Amino acid sequence: MEFAALSNATQLGGFNPLRTNLQSSLPFRHASFPSSSRRDCSCKALLSTRTPTSTHNMFGPHSTDFELSALTALSPLDGRYWSKVKELAPFLSEYGLIYFRVLVEIKWLLQLSVIPEIVEVPSFSDGAKSFLQGLIDDFSVEDASEVKNIERVTNHDVKAVEYFLKQKCQSNAEVAKVLEFFHFACTSEDINNLAHALMLKETMNSVMFPVMDKIMIALCDVAKDNADVPMLSRTHGQPASPTTLGKEMAIFAARLSRERKDLSQVEILGKFAGAVGNYNAHVVAYPNVNWPHIAEQFVHSLGLSFNPYVAQIETHDYMAKLFHSLIQFNNILIDFDRDVWGYISLGYFKQTTKAGEIGSSTMPHKVNPIDFENSEGNLGVANGGLSHLSMKLPISRWQRDLTDSTVLRNMGVGIGHSLLAYKSTLQGIGKLQVNEARLSEDLNQCWEVLAEPIQTVMRRYGVPEPYEKLKELTRGRAVTKESIRDFIEGLDIPEEAKNNLLKLTPDTYVGAAVELARTVENVVNTVIGIKI
């Protein structure tokens, strides 16, 4: 049963989808509703029981036999935003997963060849080692497609990798003698957990950390350049003690650097202990081999930390920690995006315009803070996905269930939207122009902010009820430069203290903000260890 067309409007022109690399050859399938009588349906749309060959709507029939392209992709990461996140594809795509599975399988065979007790797999010659390394180095999208073709027969993705390697290695006489030692004593999760760990490690080191560092460097630059630009603070949305624009940017640089440090210190773990974590098959086949030691050596050889206490799957606790830290980094960036959005709204920042760019379809004057809005929106999407990953992955029934398998295929969603957001924030920062005149205007209209230093000095010199006296002067009343000066002149305090207060203006009452802004790069450099 399908929703019937509302009209027979003229069919739109044919659709010619654009092709992209790493595209799927599988067409989108039309999902029809189950057959039912009209009286059983509670919806008020017109329904038809015809089985369509195309989808009917108010614009006429459209083919549903789409192939994946930038225009037909269900995820905007694979369509609209592909150009901004495509550097993640070698690591977090299906291709990336298959590539790292191939790497792990080959590296395990090489590991077996250096274990003296396993005489059935003798040490490989340099030529054989070069051949096997070439399978890793030259692995292509076409190779990954070949693995997928095998999977259509096996209906098992990891077994398809094993069969692929056996086919590839038949051409090398030396390796061909030990083909059955591919995937030796392994459960699929021995291969998968190491592949996922390598995917995350390479993603963070090659893509995410460099972009995070660019954000912090950009914020340090804004902080230094505007270290002495005074700005009215707002607490609860109301005027508060002045700060400097640079110091407020420095806060975010410091906060993000701490989260960046936490992320870099998450241990990426791996296991290689067989079907339920006990090396059961290993011990039966070669009882004299110290398999826990061999597994630890192997995992370390891949640049990962070893988890000795596991069931069938690696417990994913490190993933939860990693994704939680990523969520917190994103939360801080959301806070930044919203603050800058507000500063733009107040006129503290102007934005450079780009020729041909349109801010509103009906209001020609608009220059909207779209980069910070896009960043905030994508960070929210990212955190939703990462939150589910971090909460779900550490939970698996008994020695394992399969729920983690489908969830892990979505690592690229949360990380991809994070990367997209980071680039939007960077783009937005690059457009900012400080409007010092507007900043000064706000400060000059808020002389009441000097009530704080005045009552504090009064406390020092024993003037009774200083807070109450300033409250009476300022709360709910218009406060001017003159009224503040008159109040100071009437204070019974030492002349030097009185003169210092008379010199104060909202522009100069910024405390240590200038120095904090100028030195934040030292803090960031210490935390993340990069030269700024």
Compact summary:
The protein contains 21 helices and 10 strands. The chain is mainly α and 532 residues long. A two-stranded antiparallel ribbon has the order 1-2.
Topology record:
Blueprint lengths: L1 E2 L43 E2 L6 E3 L2 E3 L19 H4 L3 H4 L1 H19 L13 H12 L3 H14 L2 H13 L3 H4 L11 H38 L4 E6 L2 E7 H20 L4 E2 L9 H6 L5 H11 L3 E2 L10 H30 L2 E3 L18 H23 L10 H6 L2 H21 E3 L1 H9 L6 H10 L5 H9 L6 H9 L5 H9 L9 H16 L4
Parallel strand pairs: 7-8
Antiparallel strand pairs: 1-2, 3-4, 5-6, 9-10
Helix pairs in contact: 3-4, 3-5, 3-6, 3-8, 5-6, 8-9, 8-15, 8-21, 9-12, 9-21, 12-13, 13-15, 17-18
Q: What would your notes on this structure say?
A:
- This protein is mainly alpha-helical.
- Among the domains are: 94-184, Orthogonal Bundle (Fumarase C, Chain B, domain 1), CATH 1.10.275; 193-267 and 314-355 and 364-435, Fumarase/aspartase (Central domain) (Fumarase C, Chain A, domain 2); 447-505, Ribonucleotide Reductase Protein R1, domain 1.
- It is 54% helix and 6% strand.
- The protein contains 21 helices and ten strands.
- The strands form five sheets. Strands 1-2 form a two-stranded antiparallel ribbon. It has a two-stranded antiparallel sheet with strand order 3-4.
- It is elongated, with a radius of gyration of 32 Å.
- The chain starts with a strand and ends with a helix.
- The model is unreliable at 1-49 (pLDDT under 50).
For this entry, give a set of tags:
two-stranded antiparallel sheet, 532 residues, Ribonucleotide Reductase Protein R1, domain 1, Fumarase C, Chain B, domain 1, mainly alpha, elongated, 10 strands, 21 helices, Fumarase C, Chain A, domain 2, disordered N terminus
